[in-house]
Inverse folding.
């Protein structure tokens, strides 16, 4: 800890297991969410806060790159699942769609703005 700093030393990635990047990417490849990844880290460490997650995303390049890659792989898994299962009689498209809306921020709502523009004719056009 630097001189003048108070509190516990900042935790870094040394508190994770060897091979954590590979394990986390493997979970995301199966469609895992950030919540599942956080729980996996919590299981290993015995504790893990959202604040630490956010700090590592900001300050720890390898963590941020692993999570970014993993999120893309998770999105790929879910998109592929919808694309490849459309013809299946057992595919629950409603459940898949709701999952995509909640997981990836899809929305049915179309934002529209009504603008009230008033156009005034020049005076010379009103004469006559």
């Amino acid at each position: 800890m630097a001189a003048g700093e108070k509190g516990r030393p900042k935790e870094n990635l040394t508190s994770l297991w060897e091979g954590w990047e590979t394990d986390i990417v493997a979970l995301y490849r199966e469609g895992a969410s950030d919540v599942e990844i956080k729980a996996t880290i919590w299981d290993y460490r015995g504790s893990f806060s959202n604040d630490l997650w956010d700090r590592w995303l900001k300050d720890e390049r390898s963590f941020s790159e692993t999570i970014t890659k993993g999120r893309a792989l998770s999105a790929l898994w879910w998109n592929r699942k919808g694309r490849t299962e459309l013809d299946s009689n057992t595919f629950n498209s409603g459940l898949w769609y709701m999952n995509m809306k909640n997981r990836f921020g899809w929305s049915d709502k179309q934002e529209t703005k009504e603008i009230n523009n008033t156009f005034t004719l020049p005076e010379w056009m009103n004469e006559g």
